[in-house]
Amino acid sequence: EVFLPEEARGATPVDFLQQLPSYQSALRRRATAGTQDRRAASQDPAGLRAAEGHGLQQEGDEVAARPAREHPLTIAEKRRLRYCQQADIKYLSGWKQWKRTSSKSLKKVLSEVKELSSYLELWRHDIHSIEGKFGTGIQSYFSFLRFLVLLNFIIFILMFGLVTLPSIISKYGMFNSSFAKIPPKNVEPHCTVYEPSGNKGLVYFYTYLKDLLSGTGFLEVTVLFYGYYTIDAEWISIQKYNLPLAYLLATFGYLALSLVWIIKRSVGGFKQNLVHNKDPFQSYCNKVFAGWDFCITDPNAARLKHRSLQYELQTDLEEERLKRKIADRTTKEKLRIYSLRIFINIIVIAVLSGCFYSIYRATVFSQENSNVSIRHDDVSNMNFQANLLVQYLPSMVITLANFIAPQIFSFLIRFEDYSPAFEIRLTLMRCVFVRLANIGVLLFSLWSQISYCATDKCNACGYNYELYPCWESEVGQEMYKLMIFDFIIILAVILFVDFPRMLLVTHCSCKPVQWCGLQEFGISDNVLEIIYGQTICWIGTFFSPLLPAIATIKYFIIFYIKKISLIHTRKPAARPIRASSSNFFFLVVLLIGLLLAFIPLGISIAHIPSSKACGPFRNFNTSWAVVPHTIDGFPTGLRQVLYGIASEAFAVPFFMVICLIMFYFIALAGAHKRVVEQLREQLVMVRFDPLFCSPKV
Fold this sequence. Notes:
Blueprint: H1 6-10, H2 15-18, H3 21-43, H4 48-58, H5 61-65, H6 75-89, H7 94-119, H8 124-134, H9 136-171, E1 178-180, H10 205-214, E2 233-236, E3 239-241, H11 243-278, H12 280-290, H13 299-327, H14 331-375, H15 384-391, H16 393-413, H17 420-450, H18 456-461, H19 471-507, H20 511-516, E4 519-520, H21 523-540, H22 547-568, E5 570-571, H23 579-606, H24 626-631, H25 636-645, H26 648-688, H27 690-693
Parallel strand pairs: 4-5
Antiparallel strand pairs: 1-2, 2-3
């Protein structure tokens, strides 16, 4: 055989890989191992097999232990590798043989457990069915909804186990437990007066209904709200339980859990999104040549998979068509579309301004006209309906704004001529801003009323003790009402809008009705509904510890309601979207909601004085004050270490080290990116350069 000359092969663009330190180290390792093995084999012909086994061991135990099917080799090469691996086991020590066998057994057990757990996955069959019938874009919404159900359930377990359960045990004296209420020191007596508006005597049915919808009355004194946990110290058996510290740590715990879980899920979506955006042709080839699952044997499952791939390819073709259309635009067309987009954005800003002003005025009016009458149970001057309307006015205005604004945005986005994926992102960002800003305006209005003090008595308490003796429960009630009203609106839209529209389209042959047709399943609107509700849950859990349980039940019911509505009253979007980019963007928007939830919670915990009449923090100036108070009870050495960590002398160097580490990883990522780009160039050259593809002569 005649091989290509060394000069020709040396001219290939792989020099940068051979210069890497890891490559040079591997060459030296292999050369040393090969020399020793050849010497042993030359002295003893029977040692040839041992040399091969030793050489395989030098490749690394982890690589050698990998199954042959995991290596990117041909069938013949995999057979030779399997033969070498089996022969190599004879020359391993007993410990390494046991280690390799145990590793294989463990991988097999984990694979079987993972396969079994997939059958226990919540709504697995339903989501696969939705994916096949309506595409991966709508399937991503239901998967996202399932994730929030699990997240809220874990948050509920955390809050119930650390806060609610110990309080119930101590108050009812279970397990030889007890509790103590320590009156606040150096606090004016009028600041500690709190008389919940519980129902007394004969109560009408509509009063219970009002309390159930608003969180007042009999619900105000239950474990649902902050005011129930007025406990300063607990003893379960002989162990003391610090409820104030547990309450604060549980709050930090569920926020940290949500942050880590969302980031972890976002990483996978970011990788898929990055690969797709970097090389769309590669994504297309993966769908055409490697998209089918050959393990499918059920005809229904095969049909669902076929429809899923069809929707994916349809999405790719739609985006390519729009890209070509954008590239072919003339200057006149660009000027027209840009002018139209500027005009539409002015309309969007006007809609947002109107929503914010309406919410602010409604909140101020409701607080000024409902708090006094509700506190004193004085409803003689206004009937039940008017009182209910005034009390729930902020929630109704916010819900109305959240319902109308997305409809306006969805209508306007059609004239801006964006791609389906970007259209959903822009609509989501607009709707996220209006929904989350609505919550911010509500909280700002509440806090302006809570912190407003015009007398010396009020200044002594630090907050408006007359209208808000337990202001944390008041905020919790507002978050509770927002969540309940949001759920009612979702039900009302499906029952009184979607189903009547479906009946008209089905049984009425009028041209206007048929022209309207069934409403499309708007992914952006539906995602915003649950992200808005989840943001309310994150903010309200501190003021209402059992709010995650309500959110879990709410999303569980919404899943089946949306599924029924999708199948019977909606139709898939005429312009399909891709699930890979949608999943990542949904999580990014959810992460924005979580980060915005940090702001009101941080202000409530560290800045606003805690209520002196209720709650576990009534003996502290703020909720955060329990942390330094607890640290002061630690031993001197540990206390000094913790205070040193919290000081500027530690924080500044720590921040600098973190910045250096961050810059290192940024530089490393840039180097990896350059290597990947060079490897891509080599893959392209394989098709055209004869130095790569010329056969041996």
